[in-house]
Amino acid sequence: MYKGYVVMLCAFLFIAVLSACGSEAAVAHDEADDQLHMTNNDTAETLYKNQCLSCHGVELEGGRSGPGLQHIGSTMTEEQIAAIIANGKGGMPAFGRRLSESEIQSLAKWLSEHH
């Protein structure tokens, strides 16, 4: 009888240890994703300030020569935004030769999150 309790206790402890390891890994993964997201946002905001602000405004509100982008993510996909950044459209010049593909993708992702 006592041996059965010991086996059950060991099994319970083993399961508890395994589940704790998994949750720590998940937390570490979530923290890494958050850090990557913050890094992408920092990069995109810097790109926006250096390349887009003069036409689209400090708060993405638009200006004399560019439309507002405050809600661009609700009207266009990330891919559509990236295509316009790279190729231009209407009065907007193409940035495909000024920005790298990763910079365009970073900026498009950041803008697509504005709803």
Task: Characterise the protein shown here.
The protein has 115 residues and is an all-alpha fold. The protein has helices at residues 2-56, 78-87, 101-112. Helix 1 crosses helix 3 (101-112) and helix 2 packs across helix 3 (101-112). The protein is globular, with a radius of gyration of 24 Å. Mean pLDDT is 80; it is low at 25-29.
The main pleated sheet reads as: none
The counted number of beta strands is 0
What pattern of helices and strands is seen along the backbone? HHH
Average pLDDT metric: 80
Rounded to an integer in angstroms, the radius of gyration calculated over CA atoms is 24 Å
Low-pLDDT stretches: 25-29
Structural class: mainly alpha
Distance from N terminus to C terminus (CA atoms, Å) equals 63 Å
